[in-house]
Design a protein that fits this description.
The complex is a heterodimer.
Chain A: H1 9-16, H2 22-30, H3 32-53, H4 65-69, H5 71-91, H6 101-116, H7 121-127, H8 147-156
Helix pairs in contact in A: 1-3, 2-3
Chain B: H1 14-33, H2 36-54, H3 62-79, H4 82-88, H5 105-110, H6 112-124, H7 127-138, H8 143-150, H9 154-173
Helix pairs in contact in B: 1-2, 1-3, 2-3, 6-9, 7-8, 7-9, 8-9
The chains are: A mainly alpha, B mainly alpha.
């Protein structure tokens, strides 16, 4: 018969682990129901201790192993995504496309200025030989006295 | 850990101490660290420490001394951070080889399913609860000894022990009604 003095689960566990005061143990000694429940708790504790004592080399790490194994791959994938996003943002930066002859000229001038530094596109236009000139293109003279220069200038005009 | 000052010094040879305590300390480290490689390392460190001290120290109980050294080493590992510990934690329970194919007597009595259920639940316990449960229920230390070793109060030890036992019993019952619950009449 259960009485108001019957032990809670916490108290039963305290008795089973020798942490309970004598008054609780005294109650268990006189109460059939608490004694039966204490036997169940003690049986569970025995099973738990036996399972943890069984020294069969099993690692007790089932809870975290599998996903930890993928952690480096996840880190690399995350880094790749970040890099791809960064490249994407840069690629979306506005690119000016020359639409008129004036803009084309300015564009070519800037390229010429960057490439040939000393001899700009203007000078190239001024000194361009006829389109049928036979002289080969020479890297020694940056004026490009060949058909290519005429093609460039004709296109720009 | 408090040792009895009146106890005569333990004069066991180093070899005898290794024979008597190596497996126990290894199991203790395994349970507290949850990693077989790291547990092996810590156990070897503890016995190296024993080797250094054995010749020149007077100790009442080398077994308790070893437990204390091992627990302190385990706690050092926990404090060392996640990276050194993570390096080793890559083997899952299923991929870890069994030491022997034949089931051990304990396993026969418990059953493989129950064994795994308990161990999985044990793995999921917070670190402090694992430590307290291991020292109290497996190593058989008293509440006071456990509290001293872990640097916490006795009440905290009792709290952690209750929670750990409750969690493992829930796993053991696997959703069934707990027969230890009071029957209302």
């Amino acid at each position: 018969m259960r009485t108001s003095e019957c032990l809670s689960r916490r108290q039963l566990i305290a008795v089973a682990t020798d942490d309970a005061p004598p008054s609780l143990r005294a109650h268990v000694a006189t109460c059939d129901d608490c004694r039966r429940r204490l036997t169940v708790v003690e049986g569970d504790l025995g099973l738990i201790a036996a399972a943890l004592r069984a020294d069969d080399g099993l690692a007790t790490q089932a809870g975290r192993g599998p996903y930890r194994r993928w952690a480096p791959a996840i880190a690399v994938a995350a880094a790749a995504v970040l890099i791809a996003l960064g490249i994407g943002v840069r690629a979306r930066a506005p690119v000016s496309v020359p639409s008129s002859a004036g803009e084309s000229r300015a564009f070519l001038q800037s390229i010429s200025g960057s490439l040939f530094m000393a001899q700009s596109y203007d000078r190239l236009l001024d000194t361009a030989p006829p389109a049928d000139a036979e002289e080969p293109c020479g890297w020694g003279s940056l004026a490009m006295p060949c058909g290519a220069a005429a093609w460039v200038t004709a296109d720009a005009r | 850990m408090p040792t009895d000052p009146g106890r005569p010094p333990d004069v066991s040879t180093y070899e005898a101490l290794v024979e008597a305590h190596y497996q126990r300390v290894l199991r203790l480290c395994r349970l507290m660290l949850r990693d077989p490689h790291e547990a092996e390392e810590v156990t070897q460190e503890a016995f190296l420490e024993l080797h250094r001290h054995h010749g020149n120290g007077v100790v009442g109980d080398w077994g308790s001394w070893l437990t204390r050294v091992a627990v302190n080493r385990v706690r050092d590992r926990h404090r060392a951070g996640w990276w050194p510990r993570w390096r080793w934690r890559t083997r899952s329970l299923d991929s870890t080889p069994l030491a022997a194919r034949a089931p051990l007597p304990d396993q026969v009595a418990i059953g493989d399913q129950t064994l795994r259920r308990i161990r999985t639940a044990f793995d999921r316990l917070p670190r402090r609860q694992r430590e307290v449960l291991t020292l109290r229920q497996i190593e058989g230390l008293s509440t006071l000894e456990t509290a001293t070793l872990l640097g916490i109060s006795e009440n905290t030890v009792k709290q952690h022990l209750f929670r750990a036992i409750e969690a493992l019993r829930r796993a053991l019952r696997h959703g069934e009604r707990d027969p230890a619950d009071p029957v209302s009449t």
